[in-house]
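[AMINO ACID CHAIN]
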Amino acid sequence: MPVPPPTVLPTVTPPPTQDPVPELLLEVHEPVDGIEVSGDTVVVRGITQSGAAVTINDVPAILEGNGKQGIAFRGYVPLALGENEIMVVASDNLGNQSTRVLTVKSIAPPPLPFLLVITEPRDLSIVSTGIIRLSGRTGPEAVISVNGVSSPIDLVGNFSTLVALEPGPNIIDVVSTNSDGQVMSAVAAVIYRP
């Protein structure tokens, strides 16, 4: 029995390959992924391709000018206490995109509450001297006035000043205005008996 000739399969030419769409240039220089910061805001900076737009957590970044490697961008991201995810996206008019995702941990202490407490003198005190010390505590970014006169405060909100008294009953009026416009007031009544 004769041996059949080998079967020759036709050559299949693969379809021409398309060049992959090049990824947009997107480099995030700061912050470093995984960093811990002690503030409640972080600055995000980097470079992208000229002509591209950048968003940071869906907010358009500020484009700062062209350089040899591309265009610089920056943006400010508010942070919550703990882990925060920051998504940086560069996109161009052709629909090309590049994305970088960073994690930043905020270890900022929560803001101190706004308060106003007079610690000295006790309300309704009777004193025998015409000048007394008035002390208390308020918010660290507040402005204090005692009987209409500004008084300095320290970094944590403590204040202390001297107050001149008239013979008889005296009302000492303390007003604290916080940096966001909140106002608190307190009074201390002191009786001066010379």
Notes: The chain has no helices and 17 strands. The chain has a mean pLDDT of 87. The longest strand covers residues 82-91. The CA atoms of residues 34 and 63 lie 25 Å apart.
